[in-house]
Amino acid sequence: MPSLTKKIISGKPYYYLRQCERVNGRPKIVWTHYLGTPQRLVERLSTPAPLQVAVAEFGASAAVFDVATSLDVAATIDRHVPKRGTAGPSVGQYLLLAALNRCLAPRSKAKLYDWYRRTALRRLLPLAASQVTSQRFWDNMDRVGPEQIAAIEADLAARAVSHFGLDLRCLLFDATNFFTFVDSFNDHPDLLQRGHSKEGRDNLRLLGLALLVTADGDVPLFHHTYAGNQHDSVTFGEVTENLTTRLKAIAQGAVDLTLVFDKGNNSEDNLAAVAKAQVHFVGSLVPTHHPDLLAVPRKSMRRMDTAQLPAVWAHRTKKVVFGIERTVLCTFNQPLYDSQVKTLRREITKRRRRLRTLEAALLRPTSRGKQPTVAGVQKKVTLILKGRHMKDLFSADVRAAKNGRPVLTFQFLKEAWDKLDRTLLGKTILFTDRAEWTDEQIVLGYRAQHHVEASFRRMKDPHYLTFRPMFHWTDQKLRVHAFCCVLALMIASLLRRRLAKAGVEVSVAKMFERLSAIEEVTMLYPAPPGKDDPVARTMLSTHEPDQRAMVEALRLERYAAR
Description:
Layout: E1 3-9, E2 12-23, E3 26-36, H1 38-46, E4 52-57, H2 59-71, H3 73-80, H4 91-104, H5 112-116, H6 121-124, H7 134-141, H8 146-164, E5 170-179, E6 206-214, E7 220-227, H9 232-251, E8 258-260, H10 268-276, E9 280-285, H11 291-294, E10 302-303, E11 312-321, E12 324-333, H12 334-363, H13 374-384, H14 390-393, E13 394-400, E14 406-412, H15 414-423, E15 427-432, H16 439-447, H17 450-459, H18 475-501, H19 508-516, E16 519-525, E17 535-540, H20 545-554
Parallel strand pairs: 5-8, 8-9
Antiparallel strand pairs: 1-2, 2-3, 4-16, 5-6, 6-7, 9-15, 10-11, 11-12, 12-15, 13-14, 16-17
Helix pairs in contact: 2-4, 2-18, 2-19, 3-4, 3-8, 4-18, 8-18, 9-10
């Protein structure tokens, strides 16, 4: 059995615990464990071991709760959807918890409490287990209609702009859709329709979502849910009045607003509505609708400022677009050109290989099965050449031979490729009512659209901020779900912006990953002599340098348990 051994080293006593056993008939020390000095032994024996240890996620929960508190989320929601009675959590508390969950660990309402009880939110936003159930969430969500959502979002947007000092000079609008797994024969929702899925899931029902975000921090200020089969230009037309009203109310006339959108939102009525609201715009045009601009040779274009746009050339002109003369910019982007050429050459090689395979198959005699027909082969050729530019770059002819079998002949049209290379590839056509802007300002303004595209990518991230899972199938709850997801995006974007202002540049995913690793450890010790209640001590886990920088920048120690 182990024995306690004392050693005198440099005149000072030290104690060791060691195990001595017989090995091959001789005594041998098989292990030794250092215990310390006599004083250290006294300290260790007088300090009781904890009865219980609890670990909860702290960093990310406290950070998003802090931003939500700055936005006054719960109180703002409750102002528009007052609480019924005095008992239980309010609608604002339920929707706030749903939004915070979307930020950090998106899951169904049935599984939300299991996550909640393992976070610091159980202290910061205290709720009983019986209050965090699917039914309680649904009951409170039922009380929130489209009018309340719009009013709540308007107040939160105004609060975000004023409290966080958002720059509104450049605002980005775009739309996307999310596929769902709602049954095809569920006729409750009108919003869920089949259409062109931007994630390639045309076989599923889609929900459309339009967003307006700031170039300053990617913060969403406006959203709109719509039927998944609706065209972007129709959606933009539906929201133009509400969107511009929201902007003017937030800006209060103190900011010269510029709205940036892509060519999918173009229409004469939409541009007229934007002009009527006295909001400036930068947009893009369908290049093939303007062959005169595509015909401008690259050598006639002006090279733009290499410090801001190192590989971009532009040709500036005036042109009547949708009934009004606008400033139009035809740009050539070398990296875009290189990428498009590489992609097209790969697709051309694939099409050429498949056509050769089909051509060879038709030449081989077949004695079994159904014989190929001209119509059937033509259908296969059409399918092979499906894809942008492919049918223009190949000439394919299917005809019947003397024996009645179809024969395929094809060739690659080099002249068509040369024309495509000379006119379209690498080019983008922009238009704006900002006649006083330089070419560089117009291009950089349009390129800011990546902010709203980044927001959509974050909402499709499977780990944080994801729009899915979405276990709802009525229009009303789908709208509330979308509002909670956009609110989560607002909170996350403001949090990331706050860190960036403090010199901590990090992606949303990395931000939440590192903050979530900061834990709150609570140890429960036996009651001291003469006392009845045990003693609880709470401390935060050890921080890495990047985590420490985030904690200090966000001042999260304020939310640590005392």
